[in-house]
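pinging the channel bc i need a second pair of eyes. not urgent but kinda urgent?? the chain im working w is below, pasted from the shared doc
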Amino acid sequence: MADTKLYDVLGVDRTASDSEIRKAYRKLAKECHPDKNPEAGDKFKEISYAYDVLSDPKKKATYDRFGLKGIQEGGRSEHSFGHDDFLSHIMRGGGLFGGGFAGMRSARRGEDTIHTLKVSLEDLYNGKLAKLQLSKNVICTLCNGKGSKSGVSHTCRGCQGNGYKVTIKRIGAGMTQHLQSRCGDCGGEGEVVSEKDRCGSCSGKKSIKSNKNFRS
């Protein structure tokens, strides 16, 4: 039997067109938006998740063929995903604005960059193209991440190359505490570059900020 849970959430038939699905989502999202109806927060997340799947051709095709379990397997999860799991996901704050299923994510590639974008209710329902400029640290190409013009660095004398310093603090009679902190001389690198030999692009920091424009 075909899984129609997500279609039922939006109140449309399994044969509904893209425009019908979009129209149903906008109507329900407007009625259940937390700004307008604070008590319908969970319902809004449920609606958002259903639309997230059904508005994406690939996800929709997978769901139509395999149901929610197929969506999960497409996310490389090994656990079954039933109706109770779906509701549990919604209650935990999942869906379009909640970051997806726990356990559906692939291997972590690093910290996500979160950018807050203010939009009006009209933009939320009708859609809006926004331009974002984000910056991140990348390896300096001039010195290839060495930090120096010559490519030579020296062991930090402040921490003896460990990258950290240990401070001994007396906390009582015959009792001491060892506190470990990052070395301020080398920034925890364990090595330093002489001031005269520092790379002109990154100033010895080995990385530079790179700006990238996105459209969302």
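so The helical segments are 5-10, 18-32, 41-54, 57-74, 83-91, 121-126. and The two ends are 37 Å apart (CA to CA). — does that match what u expected or am i reading it wrong
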